[in-house]
Amino acid sequence: MQTLLQTLADRRGDLLTALWQHLGISLTALVLAMVIAIPLAIWAVRRPKWAEGLLQLTSVLQTIPSLALLGLLIPLVGIGTVPAVIALVIYALLPIFQNTYLGIAEIDPSIEEAADAFAMSRMRKLFKVELPIALPQIIAGIRTALVLIIGTATLAALIGAGGLGTFIMLGIDRNDTPLLLIGAISSALLAILLSALVRWFQTAKPRQALVMFGVIVALLGGGGAYSVYANRVETVTIAGKLGSEPDILINMYKELIEAQDKHVKVTLKPNFGKTTFLYSALKNDQIDIYPEFTGSVLETLVKGQNPKRMTAKQTYQLAQKRLRQQADMRLLKPMRYNNTYALAVTAQFQREHHLKTISDLNRVEGLLKPGMTLEFIDRNDGLKGLKKAYGLDVTAKSMEPALRYEAISKGRINLVDAYATDSELRQYNLKLLKDDQHFFPTYQGAPLMKASFAGQHPQIVRALNKLAGQISETDMQEMNYEVNVQKRSAAKVARAYLVKHHLLTTGAE
Amino acid sequence: MEPTTTKPVAITFQHVQKAFGDQVVIPDLNLTVEQGELFVLVGTSGSGKTTTLKMINRLDPLTKGTILVNGQDSSQMPVRDLRWQMGYVLQQIALFPTMTVAQNIAVIPEMKGTAKKVINQTIDELLTEVGLAPADYRNRLPRELSGGEQQRIGILRAIAANPEIVLMDEPFSALDPLSRQQLQDLVLRLHARYHNTIVFVTHDMNEALKLGNRIGVMRQGQLVQVGTPTELAQHPANAFVRDFFGASRAKNVYDIYVGRVGLSQGYLPKPAVAAGRIQTLAAQATLRTAFKAFRTHDYLAITEDQQVRGYLDRQRVVAYLSEHEAD
């Protein structure tokens, strides 16, 4: 509880921003869904065959898993708020359409007959008789849709639309329960609050309802206008993958760039998503820069055969060359540390079985209970290739990155994949096994941007190049530890490092 | 009341046929309803009486033939003009559930563009007329009313714009006997007051006899007999009409109305006795009232529309009851 309150106090600003984003996305989606579904349902009431088809269609749309839907939308509309809103609208269609349709279709036929016998026009009948009778059911549909939207909107964080999902993702990724709870509880509270508001609308007098609606529109519109206003200076957007390390790096980028050029304002989008999300965001100009690894570039972003056993320098040069040729991108000079994949076991397990290298695992193959990230299991430079290179025959359970450390410390698994700079290696006293076959490629971090952007912003390139060759693996492990375990903010940790190493040359103290 | 040929005609059916798909439910219907008449269509369920009614305001389109309304071919009139001169009362009552009593009554005048002030005045007058205090009832919702009260509002909604014709489709069949009696009396009172043409559909011969100036008996889509209650009672066209009439007696002898005794037994001429021995009763009064009157009087003078139709004594009533028992 203490830590929960502490986290809440530390993150107050972030929480408000996230709430605002969440509310904006949810309400936009809700209003759009209403604008589509209600008139459609009214239209379909007199066309039962169409209505049947539309009900089927909206039901099918609702059964698409939300993650899959978001994935499907990325190639069509990119990432960010737009696909998130589209996905949410799609989910909200069914309850609103169904309730509006049934609400009107199930009106007592004698009431329809009375309206006809009095020669009411179609519109008059709709607004004076049918909609008022169906209203409670329509409102119920809207409330169902709203709760659904607010819950599902937490997934928007996965594709860079922000919102309360950011807290939940971060919480899972950093194994930080208070963060997770704050995200989950806020989203639940928001759903309850808005649901009550919708119910209030149902009973409110028309004038009150109109005033309230105006206030909400003004607030949302005002928020939008403010963000346009705030963005009027030239803004460079830097995003980072999920986790503390990219968060620290992008904070360093921000400090360095803003110290170099006072006219540039850097906006950070930490925990923006996974590799391919970020890469497509960069291609679509939704972000300008993000830190990428040389190994990841060769493995997932560019095409071409990768020669085995390359040195760090060769890896960087090949990645840089292929990015330039295939995507017109520029990968700046990398930092020193190599955040490559590694396998780790507990200190106790290592002692008991005298394990030093990955080859040693062959001796204890029957005892292994590996738990690894889905990404690692599925990659050619991950478990797939590793099994071939070392002749290992194991099957790994797939686990979220943060959960597998929890699992190994509780003894449910005894072999995990890790990044060489993970703070948890230190936190849980895990030992890395030496890659004696030199199987894993080099993963050195460097800023990735479009070649055109680099050309137009030489001062930014200069600023970022100050990090080239800096930061050792232990430096990085230490910084990760400070953020993940000691709960220091990534911005403070980043700044402390830059100050300590005299990288902020112009007076930005 | 005998229909007279000099009265102008409100509704005329000319060779009207109605078919649902291949099934002809009304083969050939010819009928004339006079202006200001309360005409009752009576028949068992499936006899086509409701369909006949709904063809008048075109809720059911005709298959063949013509219906003239005030001499005009109804199929040539804009449906809105046609329906706005006809009130409509439904068996299911069907008040608009989200509107208050006042809003329900105002539905048609509002569409016609009547001034708000006039509408409000009309609402108060009409509510008072049917014994519902406006201050108390105006803002109630239909679900806050009893069934009988709801149908009173249903009737007011139909007559609020003062239509020349009012169509009533079994309006009281879902109500309890007491409410039914009260509402039948209400219809008679309103008809006497506003003189509009009413076409009233029922399956209840008692109701038909009580309300109708003339009655049309329907069976299998055909009009078996059209006539005044007296004609029907005394000269039934065939066995069906006689049986229908006979089977229509009230479940409880006390609820039989005295006009009916006169219809089936015939009335006595004015007896040569002192006026103090004769009690005047409306034809709609029940035998319960008549028995009380016979405790102190020897004769009953039966009136309809304030006019004496004839006289009854104890023997006539007993004869009616004994014949009844023999049925």
TrEMBL record, chain A:
It is found in: Cell membrane; Membrane. In the N-terminal section; belongs to the binding-protein-dependent transport system permease family. In the C-terminal section; belongs to the OsmX family. PANTHER family: GLYCINE BETAINE/L-PROLINE TRANSPORT SYSTEM PERMEASE PROTEIN PROW, OSMOPROTECTANT IMPORT PERMEASE PROTEIN OSMW. PROSITE patterns: ABC_TM1. This is ABC transporter permease/substrate-binding protein. Keywords: Membrane, Transmembrane, Transmembrane helix, Transport. It comes from Lactiplantibacillus modestisalitolerans. It holds the Pfam family BPD_transp_1. The keyword Phosphoprotein does not apply. The chain crosses the membrane at residues 20-44, 64-94, 145-172, 178-198, 210-229. It comes from the Bacteria. InterPro entries: ABC_Gly_betaine_transp_sub-bd (IPR007210), ABC_transp_perm/SBD (IPR051204), EgtUBC_SBD (IPR058089), MetI-like (IPR000515), MetI-like_sf (IPR035906). It is a multi-pass membrane protein. Residues 19-198 form the ABC transmembrane type-1 domain.
From TrEMBL, chain B:
The keyword Nucleotide-binding applies. The keyword Endoplasmic reticulum does not apply. InterPro entries: AAA+_ATPase, ABC_transporter-like_ATP-bd, ABC_transporter-like_CS, P-loop_NTPase. Residues 11-245 form the ABC transporter domain. PROSITE patterns: ABC_TRANSPORTER_1, ABC_TRANSPORTER_2. Keywords: ATP-binding, Nucleotide-binding, Transport. GO terms for molecular function: ATP binding. Belongs to the ABC transporter superfamily. This is ABC transporter ATP-binding protein.
